[in-house]
Amino acid sequence: MSEPYVPPPYPYDRLDGIKAIAAAHSSGGIDLSIGAPSDPPPASVVAAMSSSNAERGYPPSAGSMAMREAGAEWLSALIGADVPAQHLYATVGSKEFVAGLPHWLHLRRPDLDTVLYPAVSYPSYQMGSRLGNCRAVPVPVDEKWRLRLDAIDPEDAARALCLWINSPGNPTGAVEDLAAAAQWGRANGVPVFSDECYIEFCWDSPPASILQHGIEGVVAVHSLSKRSNLAGARAGFYAGDAELVHYLSEVRKHSGFIVPGPMQHAAVAAFSDSAHVEQQREVYRARMEKMIATLATRLGIDVPMPEGGFYLWAQAPDGDAWTFAESLARELGVITSPGEFYGDASPGYVRIAMVHDV
Question: 3-state class of 280 per DSSP?
Fold first, then answer.
C-alpha cells in the first residue's frame, strides 16, 4: 500500500525566526524574501480592470481573443517571434501552470513519469512534479548557474515528460542558451517549457525567448506579475507548440482554470504598454546597485549584479546561509531566503529580492 503524501512546510513559512530578528531592527524589518512586487501597477491597467463590464458572465478559459492577440503582439514587438494568437492561452498567473503541468502531461503520456528541472531553481518545478506523482530529477548547473544539458542521463531523458528551463533564472539571474535547450528537446523528443517571466529584466543582453527558435516542441510561459506589478491580479499566458498548448488548454478548460474577465480586459492594456516596464527596470536596477554597495561597505561582502531578474544571489561568507540570513536581518533589517529553498545544490547562498526600497 502506498503512503499518503504529506507536503513539506512551505519554504517561506520557515522564516519566522529571521522575521523576528529583522523586526527588532530600527527599520522594523523589510521583507526581501518573497519576490512580491511592491510598486504600483500602471494606472491605465487598473482603470481597464475597473471598467471592463466583464464581471457577470463566464470569461473564456483560453483567454479572450483580445487578450491573446495582445500577448502575441507583445511577443512580436519584444523579441520578433511571430506566434499566432491561436497558439497562445491564458494562465491564472504562472505558478498554477508550473505546479499543475506534470499532472496534465502525465495524463497525456501515462507511459512517462519524469520532470527535468534546474538543480538551482524556483521550488515549484520540483513541487509540481511531486504533486503530479512524478519523478523530479534535477539537472546540474555549471559555475555560471546555467543548465548543463550534457549532464542529463539518457535514461531520464527517455522517461521525461518535460524539461523546465528558466531564463533569466530565479534565484541566480542566469541567462540560458535557449537555442541549445530547444535543440536538445527536439533531439530527445522531450517538450521544453521555458519560464520567461523576467524576460524584460535582462541587464547585459536583449530579451530572449525560446520561441525565437521555432515553436515545435517548446512552450514559453509569461506573466504580468513582475513586468506590470500585478501579482495580485493573477494573469499570464503560455504559447508555443500547437498540439501541446491545445491539449493543455482543453484539460485546463475542463478543470475550470479561468482568468477573471476584468483581468483579461486589463491584460490587454498591460501588454500594450512598455513604458511602465522601462520605468520599473530603472527602479530595480537602482535598488540592486544600492544594495550591492551597502553589502560591500557595511558587511564587506562582494555580490555580483545578476545577468537578469531583480534578485541578488549572495554567497554566505562562511558557507552557512541561515547564519548569513540572520546577520542580514540583524545588521540591515531585511528578511531574505536561504539558498536551500531553491535546491540542495545551493545551500551556501542567500537570495535577496529587491522588491522594496531599503
Answer: helix
> Quick check: is 305 in a domain?
yes
Q: Residue 347: which of 99, 171, 175 has the closest Cα? A: 171
Question: Does residue 324 sit in helix, strand or coil?
Answer: helix
Tens-digit pLDDT profile for residues 40-91: 999 999 999 999 888 888 999 999 999 999 999 999 999 999 999 999 999 9
Per-residue cell: 56: 457577470
Judged on CB neighbours under 10 Å (0-12, 13-18, 19+), 14 is middle
| 134 and 229 inside one domain | yes
Does 2 fall in a domain? no
**Which cell numbers in the block locate residue 318?**
562562511
Residues 186 and 286 in one domain: no
Say if residue 172 is in the same domain as residue 316: no
Q: Which domain holds residue 143?
A: 54-271
Number of domains in the chain: 2
67 touches 268 (CB < 8 A): yes
Mean pLDDT for each consecutive 10-residue tract of the chain (358 residues)?
A: 81 93 91 93 94 90 97 97 96 95 97 98 96 96 97 98 98 98 98 98 97 98 96 96 98 96 96 96 98 96 97 96 97 96 94 96
Question: pLDDT digits over 301-350, tens only?
Answer: 999 999 999 999 999 999 999 999 999 999 999 999 999 999 999 999 99
Give the CATH number of the domain where residue 204 resides: 3.40.640.10
Domain contains 39: no
